[in-house]
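User: Hello! My lab partner asked me to get a predicted holo structure for this protein. The small molecule is NAP, SMILES included with the sequence. Please write out the C-alpha cells.
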Amino acid sequence: MKLLYPTSLDLDIDSLKGFAPTLHPYDVKKPIPDDLIDAEILVAWTNSPDNLSDAAKRMKNLKWIQSLAAGPNDVLNAGFDAKSIKITTGSGLHDHTVAEHTLALLLNAARRFFEMRDYQLQGKWPAHLGGPQPDRPKGRFTTLRDARVLIWGFGNIAKSLVPSLRGLGAEVKGVARSTGVRNGVEVYNEDHLKDLLPETDALVMILPGSEGTKHVLNKERLGLLPNHAWVVNVGRGTTVDEEALADALEKGEIGGAALDVFEKEPLPEDSRFWKTPNTIVSPHAAGGRPQGSEILIADNLRKFLAGQELKNVI
Ligand SMILES: NC(=O)c1ccc[n+]([C@@H]2O[C@H](COP(=O)([O-])OP(=O)(O)OC[C@H]3O[C@@H](n4cnc5c(N)ncnc54)[C@H](OP(=O)(O)O)[C@@H]3O)[C@@H](O)[C@H]2O)c1
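Assistant: Hello! Below are the C-alpha cells for the protein in complex with NAP.
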C-alpha cells in the first residue's frame, strides 16, 4: 500500500514512518508518475487543477485523500469518485494562523492603519486619525472593546479566535447551522440573522465554500447591518454577493470590508474592490501554513488502517 505525500510543504516524514503503507513524495504541479499511480492514499496541498483532475482519472486504487486545506474546494471539484474515495479536510491545521490574521484585519479596520498608510504614501499627516479622540463613539467601529462581533461560521477557526476577541473586550456571538452554546459563546442558526445583524459592529465570515453557503451574505442581509459595521471575510469568497457588497461600500451603507478571500483569485484587475472606500484587500493570506499536519495524517492513517471513522470527513 502506497501513501503519496506532497513536496509542496516541509513535512516531517520520519514522524509518519512505522505504518504499513510505504511513503512516496510527489510533485503537486505535475501528473502522478506511472509507478505511483496505484497508490491508495493521497495527501494533497496546493495541487494544481491539472494534477488533481489527472489523478481523479488515473488513480484507480485511490481510497482516501487527506487534504491539508480546511476548505478543499480544489479536491472536491476535481472529479474524484465520491462513492469509493473518502476525502478528509485539514480543518484544525489553520486555526491559529487564520485567527491571528482575522484579529489583525479587525484591528486594522478599527484603528484604520489602512488609511494611515494611504496618507503616508502621499507624504501627508492624517491629523484626523491622531491626537485626542472620542472614546468608543456610538455609530463607529473604532475599537474591539465593547464591540459586538458576530462570527458567521462558528467552527474550529472561530473557536481559536474567540479568546483574543474577548481578551480585548469584545462581545462575541456566533452563527452556525444549529443553535446552542459553544465554547461559552451563544451560537444561533441563520433564522436569527435578522435580529443579530442590526446589532453587529463587525461581522466576521468564516464559512466554507459550498452550494449551501453561496452568496449567503446578500444585499438583503447587508442592508440589515448598521452603517458603521465592518465585514471581514476569511472563509470563502463565494459566500458573499460581491456586487452587493461593493454597492454597499460605495453607498456608505456599511463601514468597510476587510477581505482575504474572493470569488475569483487573484482578484481581477477590474474588480471594484480595488477602489471601493474603506476596503482592505488581503491576498488569501490568512492560512497557507498548515500547522501540525503530521499529527493529523498519522492519526487518520492509524484510523484508516484500523477501519475506523476518519477525522474531518467531508
Ligand atoms: N483565508 C484562508 O486562508 C483560510 C484558511 C483556512 C480556512 N479557510 C476557510 O475557513 C473555512 C472554515 O474553516 P474551519 O476550520 O473553521 O471549518 P469548520 O470547523 O468546519 O467550521 C465551519 C463552520 O461553518 C458552519 N457552516 C457550514 N455550512 C454552513 C451553512 N450552510 N450555514 C451556516 N453555517 C455553516 C459550520 O456550522 P456547524 O458547526 O453548525 O456545522 C461550522 O460552524 C474553511 O472551510 C475554509 O474555506 C480560509
